[in-house]
Amino acid sequence: MLQWLLEPLSFEFMRNAMMVGILSGILCPVVGSYLLVQRMALLGDVMAHSVLPGLAIAFFLKINILIGAFVSGVISALLIAWIRSQTRVKVDAAMALIFSSFFALGVLLITLLRNKLELDGFLFGDILGVSQADVLRTGGITLLVLALVRLFYQELFFYTFDRLGAQAMGLPINAIYVGLMSGVTLTIIASMQTIGVVLVVALLVGPATTAYLLVKELHQMMAVGALLGTIASIMGMYTSYYLNVPSGPCIVLISFAFFMLAVLFSPSQGLLTAKTRSPKPTS
Amino acid sequence: MLLVQCLTVNYRNVSALRDISFKLRAGALVGLIGPNGAGKSTLIKALLGLIPAQSGRVLYGDRPLIQQRRQVAYVPQRSQIDWDYPTTVWNVVMLARSRHHGWGRSPSRQSVQIVGDALGRVGMLDLKDRPIGALSGGQQQRVFLARAIAQEADLLLLDEPLAAVDKKTEALVFQIYDELKAEGKTMLISCHEWGGILNHYDELLLLNQQLIAQGAPQEIMTPENIQLAYGLLPHQKHFHDSVEPLFFC
Ligand SMILES: Nc1ncnc2c1ncn2[C@@H]1O[C@H](COP(=O)(O)OP(=O)(O)OP(=O)(O)O)[C@@H](O)[C@H]1O
Ligand SMILES: [Mg+2]
What we know:
The complex is a heterodimer. Chain A is mainly α. Chain A has helices at residues 2-6, 12-37, 41-61, 65-86, 91-112, 119-124, 132-151, 153-161, 163-168, 173-195, 200-212, 218-243, 247-265. Chain A has 13 helices and no strands. Chain A starts with a helix and ends in an 18-residue tail after the last helix. Chain B has 7 helices and 10 strands. Classes of the chains: A mainly alpha, B alpha/beta. The interface between A and B is medium-sized, with 30 and 26 residues. The site of adenosine-5'-triphosphate (ATP) has 13 residues of chain B, from strand 2 and helix 1.
C-alpha cells in the first residue's frame, strides 16, 4: 500500500503535479465560494474559457502567457458586467454569449497563429508538463490570492451578500467586482495545467457546494471546501497515474462523488440522515 | 436636514419618479407611503445614489448626501436579500461596522459591544448564531434594523421594515423608532399600508411617481388623497394645492 502511494512520487513530474494539484485544490474552493453565494457559479466557467484568446495571443507575441490569460479573463468579466448594466439582456444570456465567443476566438487564434500551444493540455489538464517553475507560479498565485481574501474578507462578504447595502455604505463596489474577477482569473490560471480550463469550474464550485451542505458560514464553507478540494486533487492524481487517464476528469468526478455523499449523508441536510426533513422552501 | 430638489429617475425609458422635492427636518420620523410600484424603493435608492437620477439634488446639511454615506444607514427591502446566504445573524449586524476598522482587522471591542447592544434592543441577541435562513420574516427584519442601529448613523432610510411583521414586533419597532428619534436621528421609512398605524409618524410623504402630499398624518390621510395615490392615476387630477411647491422644477 505504502509502495503504491510512494511510487508515483519518485517521478519529478508527479511531485510537481501533486503540488500544483494541492494548491489549486485549496485555492479554487475559496474563490469559488464567492461565486456560489452570488449564484454566479457559471461565471467561473465563463472566465475559464475566456482565458484562451489571451493565451494564444501572448504565446504568439512571446510575452508571458500568464499576462495574456489574465487580461483576456478580466476583459470577459467586464464585458458581462457592461452588457448587464447597459441592456435588458439577462446575465445568463450574457454569460453564454461571452463564454462561447471567447472560446471560439481562442480556438481560431490558436489555429491561425499556428501556435505550438498544446490545446488539449490547456483544455483538459496535462500533468506530464508540470515543471518546477509552474509549481512556483501556482504557489505565488495561491499565496497572493489567499492573502487578499484574508485582507478583504469582510468587504467581499458585504459585497456578495448585499451589494446595494455595501454601495450605500460607500464601499467601492466596482473595484471589488474587478478585484474578485481578477482573483477568479488568477485561480483559473493556477489550475489550468492539472485540471484544464474546460473542467476547472468543477473545482471552483464542487467542493464549496459540498461544504455548503455541511456548514453554516461562509468562512467554514471555504475551509471545508479547501479540504475537500485538496483530497479530490490528490485522489485524482493517483487515479490519473495508475489508470493512465487525464487528471482533470478524475479530480472532477471524485469531487462530484463527495458532493453526492454529502447530499445523502450530511448530518443536517442529508436526504438519508437529517432527522426532520423540512420541505424545500419555494421562494 | 435632508433637502431633495427636483429629483427625477427613469429606468431606461420608464419614468419612475418625477420632480420630487421635499425637506425633512432633523430628528423627524417620516413615513414614505404609496402603493406598490409607486417608487418608494426607487426614491430611497436614488437618495443614496444607488441608481442614477436624471436630474435633481440631494443635500444633507449643506453637502451632497452621497459624500456623507457613513452618516446614512440603509435597510434594503427584504426581497432584495438572498436569505440562503451562508451566514449568521451576528455577521450580518457586524457588517454595519465594516468601515470602522481597517482592512483585515477583526472587529474592535467597541464594535462587538455595539453589535451586541443593537441585537439586544431588537430582542435578537439569543439568536445571534442562527443562520439567517432559519429566521422568520419578522426576525429577519429585526436583524436589519439592528444593523442600521449598529451603524450609529444620523439618517436612517428603511425600506418596508414592517412588511411581514406581527403586531408585537411592530410595537417593539415603533418603540425603537421613538428611542432613535430621542437620540436626534432622522428617519425616512417606507411602507405601503394605509391605516391607523401611520399616526405613529410625525410626518408622511405620499408618493405615486410624483409627490402627492406631505404633512402630518391627519392632514394626509384624507379620502381624496387615498383616491389620488391608490385609486386614480395621479395625472388625472390636479393636486398642486396639497403640496406647497418647494421648488419649481
Ligand atoms: N430595475 C428596474 N428596472 C426597470 N424598472 C424598474 C426597476 N425597479 C423598479 N422599476 C419600476 O419602477 C417603478 C417603481 O418601483 P419601486 O420598486 O420603486 O416601487 P415601490 O414603491 O418600492 O413598490 P413596492 O411597494 O412593491 O416595493 C415600478 O413601476 C417598477 O416597475
Ligand atoms: Mg419597494
